[in-house]
Amino acid sequence: MRVFGVVGARPNFMKISPLMREFAKHGEVGFVLVHTGQHYDERLSKLFFQDLGLPKPDVWLDVGSASHARQTAKVMTRFEEVVVKDRPDLVIVVGDVNSTIACALVCAKLHIPVAHVEAGLRSFDRTMPEEINRLMTDQISDLLFVTEDDGVDNLIHEGVSKDKIFLVGDVMVDTLLSHKMKAEESEILEELGLEKSGYALLTLHRPSNVDDKASLENILSILEEVQSKIRIVFPIHPRTKKRVEEFALNERLNSMKNIILTEPLGYLDFLKLMSNAKLIFTDSGGIQ
Asked: DSSP letter string over 225-270?
């Protein structure tokens, strides 16, 4: 049996990792890791793959960033070439990024079975691109692996056959538990001069929060107040960094002396920061 697992962005790495460990126990299954390159930073990708013990991807599509339509189309055309040439028995897509719906749609058209891991999750906000990806992927997938009871209820309400739905738990939690002890070895607290429970951790990247200048300015106003009371570690997302520069907010952000700005961090360093923070501020579904 030949199984393709698709990743496209950093959150996908954490979701595919425990699946790959399990498949490795079954010699009868040939697992092929496909990286679409939807979000790609060479340093970060290398760091995440090392932290999670992932092998180098078997297939690299090198899609890169673009508008939603262009990126989705590019993933579809490049992934189609791969699956037509080497037809898998099953394709596993995870999460809700553009690569998820793009690869699921290719498989649906070619009648290749698709399994969606983390199915059924809903924000009920269709202005979010991820919500559209989730809804569409669940409608065309053959196997739906769900993390929680609400996800099962959502799928049934949407008319999905119960025969396709499997309540299996959260692979993100599997990854966290399997790396928690290793994360304790991280020296990120010492590197940043932090003490346990002596800081807050912040992530910020949602388009609704950072792509609108007024919204981002409002968040910075809140941060000005919070950082006057507690140190904030802020691994700034590339999207957020770009918007801060576009909106000429660099000086304002840099003037907040109790905010520690860092580059995006690897999984183990970030897990160490999370587990020792007094507070966490985030717009990330995965972190929540």
From this structure: HHTTTSEEEEE--HHHHHHHHHTT-HHHHHT-TTEEEE----HHHH
Tokens describing residue 70:
């262009």
pTM: 0.91
Q: Which of 35, 157, 205, 237 is catalytic?
A: 205
172 neighbors 95 (Cβ within 8 angstroms): no
Which strands make up the sheet holding 90-94, listed edge to edge?
59-60, 30-35, 2-7, 90-94, 114-119, 143-146, 165-167
Active site residue 205: yes
Q: What single string gives the DSSP state of each residue in the chain?
A: -EEEEEE-SHHHHHHHHHHHHHHTT-TT-EEEEEE--SS--HHHHHHHHHHHTPPPPSEE-------HHHHHHHHHHHHHHHHHHS--SEEEEETTSHHHHHHHHHHHHHT--EEEEEET---S-TTSHHHHHHHHHHHH-SEEEESSHHHHHHHHHTT--GGGEEE---HHHHHHHHHHHHHTT--HHHHHT--TTSEEEE----HHHHSSHHHHHHHHHHHHHHTTTSEEEEE--HHHHHHHHHTT-HHHHHT-TTEEEE----HHHHHHHHHH-SEEE---TTT-
pLDDT-derived band at 36 (thresholds 50, 70, 90) equals very high
Residues 91-115, mean pLDDT to the nearest whole number: 98
Q: How confident is the model at residue 40 (pLDDT cuts 50, 70, 90)?
A: low
Q: Domains in the chain and their CATH numbers?
A: 2-180 (3.40.50.2000), 185-281 (3.40.50.2000)
